[in-house]
Amino acid sequence: MGHPTARALLRRLAVEQAECRVPSLTAAIVRDGRPVWFGGRGRVGDDAPSAATQYRIGSITKSMVAVVVMRLRDEGLLDLADPLERHLPGTPFGHLTVAQLLSHTAGLTAEPPTAWWERTPGLPADDLRARLGPAALKHRPGRRFHYSNVGFALLGELVGRLRGTTWLKALRTEVLDPLGMHDTTPRPRTPHATGYAVHPWADVVLAEPEHDADAMGPAGQLWSTPYDLARWAAFLCGESAGVLCPGTLAEMREPAGVEDGDTWTSGYGLGLQLARLRGRRLAGHTGSMPGFLATVWADAAEGLGVLFMANTTAGMSGTLLPDLLDILEEHEPRLPDEWRPAPADAGLLALTGLWHWGPKPYALRLLSDRALSLEPIGGGGRASRFVPQQDGTWLGLDGYYAGETLRVAADHLDLNTFVFTREPYDPAAPVPGGTSDWHA
């Protein structure tokens, strides 16, 4: 990264640290799977924070636990539609599904029925579940997004039951170690930042407590470093290192609920927060624990990740990461991949071009790996991509026809009963057919 770009990024970080009065603040940018910039301001003890300094990452822990749940699904050990009772019997919420817990649409209470769990020692899982009664269900399951730390405590116990170990050991073995995140730990190690609350009206700080959250650990226990969190950002961008198949990671990034009501700019997938921000589609998670704030976002389409970690309870601007991305885009925009010719099957090549659904024209294009794209000419209609299947059909990948089957006949395309023909309403085609009596 060029010096002017790095200087502009560092200045934005310095402004955040100074104006928001953050004891220490770090940030990093990942591009195409590798860190390309790191910045740190403030002090951790007598030293500047480094890429190896630990901070608590709070709810970013949830996304990592969710990856283990998805691995269990991919292995056939659970289905996302399974009721919790099938794998974790004895709770008052056995009818809630795994997918609802992952997406915060189960309707469960946000916090456990204990003292402020983030500032007090945690309870064992059995004790926590004994305190959870029917009143902990606040909304009809599936009705709306309602963030639930309790839901991820239950998912952590689910992981432990199915793996025959603790959620933490499963996470270490299946996710953290394969990704090289060896400095992501349940409790702090040296060097680490101390979590502080900054006085709202004076430049003094108060050290926040730090405890083992025990059963609530899957909701926000972990500590990490900018270096490790950069590896996590690269994973979210698609550098999966075999931890998760690309299709499953893409499934986690699909919106399952709207988080911000009528504005519809943020939502939640399966263990991942989602946002449409300044023209970007981002997936990741925020993290907040007493004394700490952190956020990691990934723009998978651009192969771009960005993160910050800070040791303050509150007070940051909320615009640091989008500002860093804007600076990068202004100074060093990504170059498009070079276009190169690619071989095409003659039979598929003959299918390309103009097709009609009734009177509406569509363009069929050939993509890589024998995939197809069917899009209305001029926009304003249903567009989807299709991937080839072994039986000679194509399966809808996205859009209105996601999951539907496209069949190619000699003179028409059959897309889940919709007939596409070369001419508008070709009278020789199957239903709806047409007539040749076009007139003024």
UniProtKB/TrEMBL annotation:
- DUF7586 domain: from which residue to which, for each copy? 345-422
Segments traversing the membrane: none
One of its Pfam families is: Beta-lactamase
Q: Name one GO molecular function term.
A: hydrolase activity
Please state every residue range assigned to the domain named Beta-lactamase-related.
Answer: 17-316
Q: Which UniProt keywords apply?
A: Hydrolase
Q: What is the protein's given name?
A: Serine hydrolase domain-containing protein
Where does this protein come from, organism-wise?
Answer: Nonomuraea antimicrobica
Lineage of the species this protein comes from: Bacteria, Bacillati, Actinomycetota, Actinomycetes, Streptosporangiales
